Amino acid sequence: MAGQPDAAGQTRYSLLQRIYLRCMEWIRTPAGIWALFFIAVAESSFFPIPPDVFLIALCIAVPAKSFRYALVCAAGSVVGGMLGYGLGFGFMDTVGFRILDWYGLHDKYQVVQDLYRRYDAWAVGAAGFTPLPYKLFTITAGAFQINFVVFAVVSALSRSARFFLIAWLIHAYGPRVQHFILRYFNLLTILFLILLIGGFLLLKMVL
Questions:
Q1: Among 53, 76, 128, 136, which is least packed, fewest CB within 10 Å?
Q2: pLDDT digits (tens, 9 = 90+) for 78-92
Q3: Phi, psi of 56 (to 5 degrees)
């Protein structure tokens, strides 16, 4: 992660870069697993950096604990998703729209509403597993008063699938898979989603 040198030759980092570097410092401490949990909580509702990069860092450091780290990351993400749901449910006008505006997602509000009308809380599954902005779906789920139980179950399934996939790849193939994950993760998740949808369609045709 390269910053820009200033007039004195010192490296200057953007706000997002500084947040990332500080989080990486926390990850390397004995409390790294808690840092991972709280980063996952925050990312699901307002934090800009996905927890995947921090999960990868911990899994590479201790591959034997990869699945434990994935579980912690998934748990934090689901808790954060519930927090986002609560923000949308009770504070959409005062907090929810501000978060969406900050990320430039306000214009997607109606699009997500249409998705919820068609697929209800199952639309969260796509955002939970793929590169779609998960926080957009958690906040709007609360605003549209989507069934909370289904929302929580779908969030748990999709986020667990995402993070356990990362953990399995690192546990199975070691640190050399890191660059592959970072470069092709979006493509891998989209392909998985296509296969998942194809499976549902096949079951529908068969049954």
A1: 53
A2: 999 999 899 888 877
A3: -60, -45
